[in-house]
Design brief:
heterodimer, A: alpha+beta, Ubiquitin-like (UB roll), DNA polymerase, domain 1, 2 domains, five-stranded mixed sheet, 5 strands, 36% helix, B: 752 residues, Aldehyde Oxidoreductase, domain 4
Chain lengths: 163, 752
């Protein structure tokens, strides 16, 4: 059984010929498109390491079947920086030491980008913590993650005001 | 930028004195862009996917598989079982060294724990391999599982932890207890815990004849290489291990484990590269865990609150086929002054995978029990818990009488208490509520972890262009080795950080020693520092013996290396650049070698530990019993701080583990089947961001002239200790209820 799926990944169009309907978006990214920045921590939507933006929404890529997302737009960690310049969330993660081993970091960053875009958290640390609680970090870098999200959100807000 | 060499330098850099600077992570840009390559991110040409089939019973025998169904599934290339598994030269059940643990690599049909690998399916796609493993449907002859700390007859282990005596005695505990004015006897239980690094164990293995190339996360590449060599009967030099980044280790990636060997065997069997990644639930068997403990603590004090005796008898568990004994009672050896001390361990054999080192092995469960008991004792004496701890402050190590190499614990207590506001704490419990009516409690604990070192080696090269290369096969599992060790390397060669290349994370480099025991920065750091000093000494020899050098006649001891130049110590205006010295000598480069290891004389003379004090606030819902740790302040003294930004992160991460120990994590075993019932990240609770609202780590200054030439102690594990007990004690202070079973859940507090 062959499936022909159109996806836009990090701005680039992809035509994916799938011989297997079981392929998840996560495994497609990692094993077929070789975009390995998105990580697999649990493969059942419990850890958030595979968070990508799917049509702009935070999504656990391990729970998304490619076959169900024909025509979708996918943004992964590899597509966040532009022209060699880090996205403000990426820069803030480094500045606030919001990572240790780095394995959950792509998911944390994509989740933070999604959270900021959703606009619900404002500058309330408690709401940021809640909004980031779908992304586990076993190293315990949470304090830095919260600081980084608040910092980046402030920068992005000021940037959009200036524009 | 290659995956084994980081050459970029961050902007805020003080040339010539990298150690002590709060540099950002040098691997940060790779990690925030998805460019950092972890083991499972590799995909060599022709690679196949391997998926484990694991046992669903705890004990018994595999009778057979539905091989036809698995092999018939489209895309499945091969199924590896004990029948067709390639032979091994070494015995996977052998015990060549204390660090060789028995592993399950399809050597027979026995099942000795749940989630034990029983077959491997190899396929063209991950989907096909996964389906093939499910189709195997093993049939078992199952035997009853032995479960729980009362599930088998206890035995007396010969050693605990990494070879410590199973029992220790100092003074007479029984007479100390008889003479006591206040006495406590209490039993504390801690659960089985699983490391649950975010990165599942993974290996990509490729054979070329009898040489082997693997990508796998490792906290100990040299030991891993040696064990693989023994098992496969090939020379260690024929095995290349790349481990530039670990997605967390916490002890579970220290030593070679069965699934790694199965990945290598699968590649052997099919003659193609193979990737094998554990599924999350498969991490609850063959890759280690922290065993449960039951600790019975007896304590006595005199009328003034000074200890007359401390005793801890700990029960724990190991597997039926190998020994790792969680050394839970031993944390009492160095913490509080007492004229009499007694610790002991026994264990039962259960149908589980063999327990393993897990972040602060022994210290973590030992600390929560001891610190809880100390809090109970302070209450019995009517004393403030901090005043009680100061009353029993150990001026020398109580178990040995040795002085401490350094101990700034008083300063930790003082700075932590000041920052937290401890002096405003009411002595009695249930005296504080917040605006929402939640019960508020404050508790504290003392943190301690030994300052250990393994043996490690490094190589430093000064090149003709005046730059340097420093190499050591270190392991970065998130602690910041890429950054901290490079800082040491730069200072060791007297070069700014942007003029050295630091190579690490590869087995072809000098063995940096195991990344465990919070010893890696000290071990590899001293090796790097010595290698740099060796290279500089050779360079100085060239210059001071050369009449054409402005340094002629200065003597080896008479120069200072700074910023790529050697200066006469007595006249710093006279100097010469490294490149000029090498050019005149006609040398392309000059090499130094260094070793880091503990000094046995210093170890005999001094007790060496890092210390800390942790203060915790919790809020408890009086109706529902729900607990939240709302504030934590930790103050730690661990010798010289190489990078305060990274050290602070290590402390905060450890404190999160302490909260997790007290309130969140436990593996729950089904008493009928012996299986872990919550082998996933939704039901095995680890803290999420919202669980740790406020964390503060204070770095307390401490100079240690004895522990090693750099004065470095470890920071990776200490913060779990102290924190876990502080949270438990805060729960008592909020509620008046002493919880002695961890983690503390609402079932223990509902309706308080």
């Amino acid at each position: 059984m062959g499936l022909s799926i159109a996806l836009t990944v990090n701005g680039a169009p992809h035509r994916v010929e799938l011989e297997d309907p079981r392929v998840t978006l996560l495994d497609l990214l990692r094993e077929r498109l070789h975009l390995t920045g998105t990580k697999k921590g649990c493969d059942r939507g419990q850890c958030g390491a595979c968070t990508v933006l799917l049509d702009g929404r935070r999504t656990n890529a391990c729970l998304a079947l490619v076959a169900a997302h024909d025509g979708a737009d996918v943004l992964t960690i590899e597509g966040l920086a532009s022209g060699g310049e880090l996205h403000p969330v990426q820069a803030a993660f480094i500045a606030h030491d919001a990572l240790q081993c780095g394995f959950c970091t792509p998911g944390q960053i994509m989740s933070a980008v999604g959270l900021i875009a959703e606009g619900h958290a404002g500058n309330d640390p408690e709401r940021v913590r809640e909004g980031m609680s779908g992304n586990l970090c076993r190293c315990g870098a949470y304090a830095g993650i919260t600081e980084a999200v608040l910092d980046a959100q402030g920068r992005l807000a000021r940037g959009s005001e200036a524009a | 930028m290659s995956d084994i060499a980081l050459t970029s330098a961050p902007a805020h850099l003080r040339h010539g004195s990298s150690i002590g600077q709060p540099l950002t992570r040098r691997d940060g840009p790779l990690k925030v862009t998805g460019e950092a390559r972890y083991a499972a991110d590799n995909h060599p040409p022709g690679m196949l996917f391997a998926v484990l089939a694991v046992s669903t019973v705890a004990r018994g025998r595999v009778l057979g598989f539905d091989l036809a169904a698995a092999k018939g599934h489209p895309g499945v290339v091969e199924v590896m079982t004990p029948v067709n598994r390639p032979p091994l030269a070494g015995d996977p059940d052998g015990k060549e060294s204390p660090f060789a643990f028995r592993m399950d690599v399809l050597q027979n049909d026995r099942v000795r724990y749940p989630q034990q690998p029983v077959a491997v399916v190899i396929a063209e796609t991950l989907e096909a391999a996964t389906e093939g493993a499910a189709l195997l449907a093993p049939r078992y002859e199952a035997e009853p599982a032995r479960v729980g700390l009362d599930g088998a007859e206890p035995f007396a282990p010969k050693v605990v932890g990494a070879g410590n005596p199973a029992s220790a005695r100092h003074g007479d505990v029984e007479s100390g207890l008889r003479a006591a004015s206040h006495r406590l006897e209490a039993t504390y239980e801690t659960p089985a815990q699983y490391h649950n690094a975010m990165e599942p164990h993974a290996i990509v293995a490729a054979w070329d004849g009898d040489t082997l190339s693997i990508d796998t996360p490792s906290q100990g590449m040299a030991l891993t290489q040696a064990r693989i060599a023994g098992l496969f009967g090939i020379p260690p030099a024929g095995i290349t291990i790349r481990s530039p980044f670990l997605g967390g280790g916490f002890g579970s990636k220290g030593l070679l484990n069965g699934p790694q060997v199965l990945g290598i065997l699968a590649a052997r069997l099919v003659g193609r590269p193979v990737k094998l990644v554990l599924r999350r639930e498969q991490m609850y068997g063959p890759v280690g865990h922290r065993a449960p403990t039951r600790q019975t603590i007896r304590m006595g004090t005199d009328a003034g609150g000074a200890f007359t005796a401390i005793a801890n008898q700990a029960r724990t568990a190991t597997s039926t086929f190998d020994d790792f004994i969680e050394p839970a009672a031993d944390v009492a050896h160095a913490l509080y002054a007492t004229p009499a001390l007694l610790t002991g361990h026994d264990a039962v054999r259960l149908d589980t995978g063999t327990p393993m080192f897990m972040r602060a092995p022994g210290e973590a469960p030992g600390s929560i029990a001891l610190e809880s008991a100390v809090d109970e004792m302070a209450e019995a004496c009517g004393m403030d818990p901090l005043a009680f701890r100061l009353k029993n402050y150990a001026e020398v190590e109580p178990s040995s009488g040795r002085p401490f190499s350094s101990k700034a614990l008083r300063e930790c207590y003082a700075q932590g208490a000041e920052r937290f506001g401890w002096s405003r704490r009411p002595l009695a419990p249930r005296r504080m509520r917040d605006e929402a009516g939640l019960l508020v409690g404050w508790g504290m604990g003392t943190a301690i972890f030994p300052a250990l070192m393994f043996a490690g080696h490094a190589r430093a090269v000064l090149k003709a262009d005046g730059t340097g290369v420093v190499e050591t096969g270190a392991h970065d599992m998130g602690q910041g080795a890429w950054t901290a060790l490079a800082q040491i390397a730069a200072d060791g060669l007297g070069l700014p950080l942007d003029r050295i290349e630091f190579r690490s994370g590869h087995s072809a480099l000098p063995d940096a020693g195991l990344a465990g025991g919070s010893a890696h920065t000290a071990t590899a750091g001293v090796a790097i520092d010595r290698a740099g000093a060796d290279a500089i000494a050779k360079l100085a020899g060239l210059a001071t013996r050369d009449r054409r050098s402005p340094l002629f006649g200065a003597g080896n001891a008479g120069v200072v290396a700074r910023d790529g130049r050697l200066h006469r110590r007595d006249d710093e205006a006279r100097s010469e650049g490294y490149a000029d010295i090498l050019a005149r000598a006609g040398l392309g480069e000059i090499e130094g070698r260094g070793t880091g290891a503990a000094d046995p004389a210093a170890q005999a003379a001094f007790a060496m530990h890092a210390h800390g004090a942790v203060f915790a606030e919790v809020k408890v819902d009086p109706e529902f019993g729900q607990v939240r740790c709302t504030r934590l302040v930790g103050a730690f003294a661990a010798g010289r701080v190489v990078n305060p930004r990274m050290v602070r992160s290590q402390y905060k991460g450890g404190m999160v583990w302490g909260v997790s120990f007290a309130l969140h994590e436990q593996a729950v075993t089904d008493g009928r089947t012996g299986r872990v019932m919550n082998a996933n990240l939704a039901e095995y609770h680890v803290p999420v961001n919202a669980d740790v609202p406020s964390l503060e780590a204070i770095l307390v200054h401490e100079h240690d002239p004895h522990v090693n030439p750099l004065g470095i102690k470890g920071v990776g594990e200490i913060a779990i200790t102290g924190t876990a007990g502080a949270v438990a004690n805060a729960v008592w202070h909020a509620t008046g209820v002493r919880c002695r079973h961890f983690p503390i859940g609402l079932e223990q507090l509902i309706g308080v």
